[in-house]
Specification:
The chain has 684 residues and is α/β, with parallel strands linked by helices. Among the domains are: 42-145, Nucleic acid-binding proteins (OB fold (Dihydrolipoamide Acetyltransferase, E2P)); 249-281 and 294-417, P-loop containing nucleotide triphosphate hydrolases (Rossmann fold, 3-Layer(aba) Sandwich); 449-607, P-loop containing nucleotide triphosphate hydrolases (Rossmann fold), CATH 3.40.50. The protein is built from 27 helices and 23 strands. The strands form five sheets. The protein has a seven-stranded parallel beta sheet with strand order 13-14-12-15-16-11-17, with helices on both faces. Strands 2, 3, 4, 5, 6 and 9 form a six-stranded mixed beta sheet that branches. A six-stranded parallel beta sheet has the order 18-23-22-19-21-20, sandwiched between helices. The chain is globular, with a radius of gyration of 31 Å. It starts with a helix and ends in an 8-residue tail after the last helix. 34% of the residues are buried.
Length: 684
C-alpha cells in the first residue's frame, strides 16, 4: 500500500478506498480500465452540432460575458459566447456555482457532452468544461483533443481523478509491465505488445489502437481460460483407463423395455457417445445439454445400467437440492430396481447410523448407484469401483467436483445442463468438456402455447382457469422480485400477489398458497408436496420454481411483469408446466404491449427452442447472466467478443497449437507468468 501511496501521491483516504476495491498495487491501478471513451479529438462549431444524438460531442467557444440571477430559489448563470467561426450563442447553467466560477471571460473552452436544444438555447446537461490548450497551461492538454477515457466512479473517487493520475504516469508503464507471450506468437496472431496495450487501453493514440488494445486484453482473458481448461482436462485425465471389453449394445435392450417411450434419434446419439467414452483410454469429461423435459436423466441412467452390466462400475448421481435428489431417486429406482440394480439415496436428513450403513455398503460394492446432494462432497466416503459420475446442473461446483473425484482414479464425468448454452459460449468457457446436445423432444409432448397478454386480460382469464382447475389441473402465478437481490422485497412482492389472487378467487381461499426463497427448506418442501398432491391448486411463487419437482397436473402458468425476465429464464419457468401429454399454456403478462420489451417477448410465442432463445439473450446482456451460477471470473467478457466466432476459434487454435508444441505444458516460464499475470481484471 505504501508503494501505491508514494506512486500516486494522494491522500490516505483515497489509498484506503482504492485498497477496499482491490487496488493494492501499481499494477492493480493500471488494470483499472475505462468503462467508456469520449472522442474529444473532433471539435465541431455550433452550426454543426447534432442535437439529441447518442454520442458525446465536443465544441469550442470563447466566453464573452456571464451573468447570474435568481429564479424560484435557483441560481441561473447565463453565459454568452462565440465559436471559432464567430457564431454567437448563449447557454444556461443551473445551480452550479463551481462550474460557472471556473469560466473566465475572453478565454477559450472545450465543452463536452450531449447537446439538446430548448428554450432557444443550447443545453449541455452536466457537461465537462475544460480550458482549450491555446488559452491554458499545456498540462491540461490531456483531457482535450484526443480520445478521452471515462472511468467508473469508486466510492467518491471521481472518474476525472483516475483520468488525471493515469495520464501523469503513462511513462511508468514499462516499469510495471513486461511481455509474457512468445514473440513469434505475437507476430502470428498480430497482437499488440503488453506495454502498448496498457497505454492504449487508457489513452488511445487513435481509434485503431484502442480496438487493438481491447482485442489484446480479451484475447488474453479467453486464452487464459482455454489454457486453464486444457491443464485441468489433462490433469484429470492423467489416470488412463485401459478398457479391453468390447461394446455390448444388446445389454441396453433389458432397460429399454422399461422405458414407456421410444428414444429419439438425439437421445440414441448421446447414449452412443457416452458408451464410446466408457471404452476409451481416458476418463470422459462430457457436458450434456438439453431443455428441461428432454430426458437427460433417462440417457444418463441408461449409461449407468450399461456400465454396471459390462464394466462392473459404480455410479454417483449428484443433485443440487435434497428435494431434487429425492425426485431423481424415485425415477431412477423405478428403472433400475426391476433390473436387479441397487439404488440408494444419501442426504443430510438421514441419521448417522443410516449414513454409515450406506457408506459401508458402497465400499463393499453392495450399492450400484448412489444419489446424493452437492453438499455431501465434503464428507468422507469411499467406493469399491467408482467409474461414473452424473452431475445435475450447478456448474459452479465443477472445480470442487473434479478435485473430489480425482482421488477415486478420475471416474467418467457427465455434467448435465438444462440451460441451453450458445455455441460461442461453449467454445469460450467449456473447452475441457466434450459437448453433447439433445435437441429433440419426446414425440408425445404437445407444443406449449405461449401468449403475451396485458394486465387487464389476466383478470378475464378467471372463468377459463376455474374450468382447468375443475378438470384437475393446477396453476402457477410467478412474480418477479422488486429488487434484483434476494431481499425481503421478494416476500413483499409475492405476498401482495398472493393477496390479489385471494381477492380474485375467493372460491379457492384454502387452495391457494405462496412460495419464495426466504421460506425454510422444510416449509418449501411441504408446499411443493402439497401442490403435487393437489391440496393446493394455485401456487403464487417467485422464481424458486426454476428448481422444482415434477407436477404433471400443472398445465397453466401466468408470469407477471414478464418484461423483467430474460428469455432463458422465462423459458426455464414455462418448462414447469410441460411435464405431461396435457396441453399446457404460458401467459406472459406485461403492462403495455407497446413497450420495447414486447418485441423481445414475441420470441417466446414463436419458438420453444431454448438454444435460439439463449442466442437472443446473448445479444442483449452480459455473459454472466446466461452462465448464471458459473465461476464469477467468466463474467468479464463482453457480448461483442463472445459473439465473434472467428475470434473465439482463433483463441482456441492457439491453445491447440500450444498443446501440440508443448505436450506436457511443463518447463515454460512464460506460460507460468502468463497464467499468473492477468491484464485488466476489471471490465473495460
Amino acid at each position: 500500500m505504501s508503494d501505491l501511496k508514494t506512486f500516486l501521491k494522494t491522500t490516505p483516504l483515497y489509498i484506503k478506498l482504492l485498497w477496499n476495491n482491490g487496488i493494492n498495487t501499481v499494477r492493480d491501478f493500471f488494470n483499472y480500465f475505462p468503462r467508456a471513451y469520449e472522442n474529444r479529438a473532433s471539435i465541431k462549431p455550433l452550426n454543426q452540432l447534432v442535437f439529441d444524438e447518442k454520442w458525446v460531442t465536443s465544441t469550442k467557444w470563447k466566453i464573452l460575458s456571464k451573468k447570474v440571477f435568481a429564479r424560484n430559489w435557483k441560481r441561473i448563470y447565463d453565459i454568452s459566447f462565440e465559436d471559432e467561426l464567430w457564431n454567437l450563442w448563449s447557454i444556461s447553467i443551473f445551480n452550479s456555482w463551481y462550474l460557472a466560477s471556473k469560466l473566465q471571460e475572453w478565454c477559450w473552452y472545450i465543452i463536452v457532452w450531449k447537446p439538446t436544444y430548448k428554450y432557444n438555447k443550447i443545453i449541455f446537461s452536466h457537461p465537462d468544461v475544460v480550458p482549450s490548450w491555446d488559452s491554458w497551461e499545456i498540462q491540461e492538454f490531456y483531457n482535450t483533443w484526443r480520445i478521452f477515457p471515462i472511468y467508473s466512479e469508486m466510492n467518491g473517487i471521481k472518474p476525472g481523478w483516475f483520468a488525471k493520475k493515469t495520464w501523469e504516469h503513462l511513462d511508468d508503464i514499462p516499469e510495471y509491465f513486461s511481455e509474457y507471450l512468445p514473440e513469434d506468437f505475437l507476430k502470428e496472431f498480430k497482437l499488440l505488445d503488453v506495454q502498448s496495450t496498457i497505454h492504449n487501453i487508457h489513452y488511445p493514440d487513435n481509434e485503431h489502437l484502442k480496438q487493438e488494445a481491447i482485442h489484446r486484453v480479451f484475447f488474453d482473458r479467453l486464452l487464459r481460460i482455454q489454457i486453464f481448461s486444457l491443464i485441468n482436462k489433462l490433469s484429470y485425465q492423467a489416470n488412463n483407463k485401459i478398457i479391453s471389453e468390447q461394446q455390448q449394445w444388446n445389454i441396453l435392450k433389458d432397460m429399454l423395455q422399461h422405458i414407456p417411450f421410444e428414444l429419439t434419434h438425439a437421445q440414441k446419439k448421446v447414449v452412443k457417445q457416452i458408451i464410446d467414452d466408457f471404452h476409451s483410454w481416458k476418463p470422459m469429461i462430457r457436458l450434456l445439454q438439453g431443455d428441461v423435459g428432454s430426458w437427460k436423466t433417462i440417457v444418463a441412467t441408461l449409461a449407468a445400467f450399461y456400465l454396471k452390466k459390462v464394466l462392473w462400475g459404480q455410479t454417483v448421481f449428484l443433485a443440487p437440492l435434497e428435494v431434487l435428489a429425492q425426485q431423481h431417486y424415485q425415477s431412477i429406482a423405478r428403472l433400475l430396481l426391476p433390473l436387479w440394480m441397487r439404488v440408494e439415496l444419501l442426504t443430510w436428513s438421514l441419521t448417522k447410523g443410516q449414513k454409515d450403513k450406506i457408506k459401508s455398503d458402497l465400499k463393499q460394492w453392495k450399492i450400484d448407484v448412489i444419489i446424493w446432494t452437492h453438499a455431501l462432497l465434503q464428507e468422507w466416503i469411499d467406493f469399491h469401483n467408482l467409474q461414473y459420475v452424473i452431475i445435475d446442473e450447478q456448474h459452479k461446483f465443477w472445480v470442487k467436483q473434479r478435485a473430489f473425484f480425482k482421488k477415486f482414479w478420475s471416474p467418467h464425468i457427465l455434467q448435465m445442463s438444462a440451460t441451453p448454452i450458445p455455441r460461442s459460449m461453449a467454445i469460450a468457457f467449456f473447452w475441457e468438456f466434450d459437448v453433447s446436445i439433445i435437441d429433440e423432444l419426446p414425440k408425445w409432448r404437445l407444443p406449449i402455447k405461449t401468449k403475451i397478454i396485458s394486465t387487464s386480460e389476466t383478470t378475464k382469464l378467471k372463468p377459463w382457469i376455474l374450468d382447468k382447475i375443475n378438470k384437475g389441473q393446477r396453476i402457477f402465478i410467478v412474480t418477479p422480485l422488486i429488487e434484483e437481490s434476494e431481499t425481503l422485497d421478494e416476500v413483499q412482492s409475492v405476498t401482495a400477489e398472493y393477496e390479489n389472487m385471494l381477492a380474485l378467487y375467493p372460491e379457492l381461499k384454502w387452495k391457494i398458497w405462496l412460495l419464495h426463497w426466504k421460506m425454510k427448506p422444510k416449509e418449501k418442501e411441504e408446499v411443493m408436496q402439497n401442490f403435487k398432491k393437489g391440496k393446493y391448486v394455485m401456487l403464487v411463487s417467485t422464481t424458486v420454481i426454476e428448481v422444482w419437482v415434477d407436477v404433471p397436473e400443472a398445465t397453466v402458468m401466468i408470469i407477471r411483469n414478464s418484461e423483467r425476465f430474460w428469455l432463458a429464464q422465462l423459458h426455464q419457468l414455462r418448462w414447469r408446466i410441460w411435464r405431461s401429454d396435457i396441453q399446457s399454456y404460458c401467459f406472459l403478462e406485461t403492462p403495455k404491449k407497446s413497450w420495447d420489451s414486447y418485441e423481445r417477448l414475441k420470441a417466446m410465442e414463436q419458438t420453444t427452442d431454448g438454444f435460439k432463445l439463449a442466442e437472443l439473450d446473448l445479444q442483449n446482456r452480459w455473459s454472466w447472466e446466461i452462465l448464471g451460477t458459473m465461476q464469477s471470473w467468466m463474467s468479464d467478457i463482453p457480448i461483442d467478443i463472445l459473439s465473434d466466432m472467428k475470434f473465439l476459434e482463433t483463441v482456441q487454435q492457439w491453445a491447440l497449437w500450444l498443446l501440440k508444441k508443448y505436450p506436457n505444458l511443463d518447463g515454460l516460464p512464460w506460460l507460468q507468468k502468463f497464467l499468473n499475470e492477468k491484464i485488466g481484471d476489471i471490465l473495460a
